[in-house]
Write a structure and sequence with these properties.
Layout (H helix, E strand, L loop, with lengths): L2 E5 L5 H12 L2 E7 L3 H10 L4 E5 L5 H14 L3 E6 L14 H29 L2 E6 L2 H5 L5 H21 L4 E8 L12 H10 L8 H12 L10 E4 L5
Parallel strand pairs: 1-2, 1-4, 2-3, 4-5, 5-6, 6-7
């Protein structure tokens, strides 16, 4: 057994594919969810190894503290943290409510920071650990009608690069993946015409699967990437 991995937003999409990948690699997996209890429970039961589900709204530092305490009591200390949970909003920036802006920032950026803040002390004490966050290609180049989402994902990239420098001397690696257009619920609202246009714009001529991203996360969690930190690995089919 390789230790305990926590995947936030682990019940569906990229998160669920990552849970399956890490379980196959021998991790005990803590599956975080906010509202999708049934999906998380079914996923945990389907895995080959040890797994448990943990409800938590990662935008709340108090709930994050409680989740980590439960994981530590039941599975052990988190050695691999995958910051995957996220929410999106497509629309004109000037039409966004302040509530929507705050929610995107709290989940997509602050939630990852809160979870990382809670995981780091144990990693520093053990002089080992791995943190992988899910950014987005829009955090690299920006997306029209997704200004706040793009800003949050750009923040994840900056957070990753800065923290990697800070935690490197403690033997902790910090990286992020930057997915392109992936076949997840987040993109279900895109119509067929838009999806087809995105496929045409992608050199590999298709959109990505959650498993495409999960495989890269598995690589970043493995000893094969032992000298990689502070990096942004694109998983976008060559679209940017």
């Amino acid at each position: 057994m390789k230790g305990v991995a926590l995947v936030t937003g682990g019940s569906r999409g990229i998160g669920a594919a990552t849970v399956r990948e890490l379980s196959s690699l021998g991790y005990s997996v803590a599956i975080n969810y906010n509202k999708s209890h049934d999906e998380a429970s079914l996923l945990a039961k389907s895995l080959p190894g040890e797994a448990a589900v943990y409800q938590c709204d990662i935008s709340s530092p108090e709930e994050v503290e409680g989740m980590f305490s439960r994981i530590e009591a039941e599975l052990g200390e988190v050695e691999l943290l995958v910051n995957n949970a996220g929410v999106s909003h497509i629309g004109l920036f000037q039409d966004m409510s302040y509530e929507s802006i705050l929610r995107l920032a709290e989940v997509n950026l602050l939630g990852a920071i809160y979870c990382t803040r809670r995981a780091v002390p144990g990693m520093v004490r053990r002089h080992s650990g791995c943190i992988i966050s899910v950014a987005s290609m829009w955090g690299e180049v920006g997306a029209s009608c997704e200004a706040v989402y793009s800003s949050c994902k750009a923040g994840i990239i900056g957070f990753t690069k800065a923290l990697a420098k800070e935690l490197g001397p403690s033997g902790i690696r910090v990286n992020c993946v930057s997915p392109g257009v992936i076949d997840t619920d987040m993109n279900k609202e895109l119509d067929d015409e838009t999806i087809n246009a995105l496929c045409r714009d992608t050199p590999l001529m298709r959109i990505g699967s959650p498993e495409d991203v999960a495989g890269v996360i598995g690589f970043l969690a493995s000893p094969d990437s032992g000298f990689i930190t502070g990096q942004v690995l694109p998983v976008n089919g060559g679209i940017i």
